[in-house]
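[job 4471] stage=fold_predict status=RUNNING
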Amino acid sequence: MKIVTKLLSLCLALVLFMTTLIPSAAMASPSLDKEQQVFLLSILSNAASRIEGTQEELQEQLKTDITNYLNTPSIQEDIGNWELVWGPAIYEVKNSEYATNAMYVAQNGNQYVVAIAGTNPSSFYDWLFEDANVIKRVNWPYGDIPASLKPKISKGTSIGLNYLLQDMKSSGKSVLEFLGETVENSDDEIEIIFTGHSLGGALSPTLALAAFDQKSEWAGEKPFKISVYPSAGPTPGNRDFSTYYDSRLGNSTTRIWNDIDIVP
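[job 4471] inference complete, writing structure tokens
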């Protein structure tokens, strides 16, 4: 009788143990797919919009918002366990109290998402000098461009790209310096995903192409993958730029847009 009782107790304990494991296993798989996860991370980069403050104050506020969001259990059930690993970095033009551009990097396993904010509705500079500055175009300065192409990007896109590449740093490192160290120190091949919405939908593929064209300078010879997930982005350059972009990253880019969107 004692043996039977012990067996029953053991079986009950095993059932209880398996019951606790099943929900954990289910939670380990996010309810949202990769594209949906990246889109949410993209939108999160806009959390500093409409908030007044110095560049440093806005960076701290955005860091708090991103960290709290990524650590929320219900959010983790949807997108998995993402961690803020660089930034957020904010660029604020002189005499402004609003973020001009914002960017951060989040990591989950071997995936690194570079999320770039869109137009800040409260930033007059964003509207005038990055969004609407499209009449003047500048030559694309990177890569081995075929003689048959003359890729150009709008002046506004060029201004935003330079902020992302040169002016926005976290712990003294630009985003490409950070990613270069990440590639170098990783045992496995990593995937770098560039994403953004609206203005970020123009800047994210442009930054991705700049990174691709200069990869030997910041990433050395170690292999890695670049993917791009822009949404509702205005056209960053001329037709030759689009042709050149597609020849480099077209197969790695997933574009999201609405046919009735007034943004071209």
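[job 4471] summary: The chain has a mean pLDDT of 88.
[job 4471] exit 0
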